[in-house]
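YM 10:42: ATP-dependent RNA helicase DHX8 sequence, as discussed on the call
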Amino acid sequence: MEAQKKVPFRQIRAVFDEDTITVYQAYNSQIADAAVAAQRLDASPLYRLSRMTWIKPSWTWVNYRSGYSYKDANQERILALKITHEGFLQILRSAHLSHGPPGYQIGGKQGARVVVQWDPERSPRLVKLDFRSIQIGIPGVMVGQWISDWIVGIEDVTAKARELKRVLDEDRNMATPELVERGLMPVEREYVVPDDLQDSLQMRVRIEEKEEVNIVDKEST
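YM 10:58: structure's back
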């Protein structure tokens, strides 16, 4: 994604088709191997259903979060998860924002709800950009349904992340269009959500408006 393009300050961008939207997570090898083999995220006994888990529709952001999979052993495998549109929208409708006026949330009790935060988008080289990318925290009470009902495909894309880093390290002049041609950068399009969600997720905020306290994504995924 090119920083100079006119992009709304808050916008959901993703790879999607008629049936699904792709999001990313990073895991250790044991969890990733079992998930890909069984096509079920909690196939490994190491997977903890009780904890909040974060999903990211942005390819560059999961690479930033995991250091192209090199950051640590708990993030050494990047998975692309295909989620149904119905499930993705239900997740968003269950959300509250991690920033905004004190006590602000879309609905329900904090801790039992999905958390949405808007973090600076990243370039392929992980440089911070001026617009935001959505990060979505799914609480433990919803993880079981997310895995059983809404994830319909799991792919290991670690090799693509590492090849992306290798190419960028070798050629400082490598541009995004060429990365797209090589299959190392997906074409992420605007994922349009209904007006009520645009309002509740504060997607219409202007770039000059300052955000308040933003929680830290402390989990390993």
